[in-house]
Amino acid sequence: RPLRPGPFLFRQRICKMADSKVTIRTRKFLSNRLLNRKQFVIDVIHVGVACPSKAELRDAIAKMYKVKDSKCVAIYGVKTVFGGNRSSGFGLIYDNFEITKKVEPKYRLAKIGEFKKSGMTRKQKKERKGRKIRSFGTKRRAEKRLKRRQAKDAS
User: Is the pTM of this model over 0.70?
Assistant: First the structure.
């Protein structure tokens, strides 16, 4: 079925992957100058095979749009349609990797291995904060107690 041109359908590209059972199609392509990126909806048609991994999709999109670094491409929200054979998601292509690091959420950067999470869990951070609050001022209180005892003993 042919796609009807609309306000958000500027460009459509189709790419066949190496095994030729997978076709990648982008639609609703628009350029977001405010965030220095291009954004689009990605449709993957994979008849008889599983949906390709996000890394494979990222590399194919980078090749399709002639992006130098595939880390500037972010793919997320890829869901397979009921019945299989077709998946759909969102894609972003940033102008350079510095902007990618600045704009992309940390969890997405962590998925591609560009952001190191701290070793502590949320609960450990909260427990540490609680211990810090409870121990606040104990040294001063101990010094005051000592002064009072000394003053009491002197009189």
Answer: no
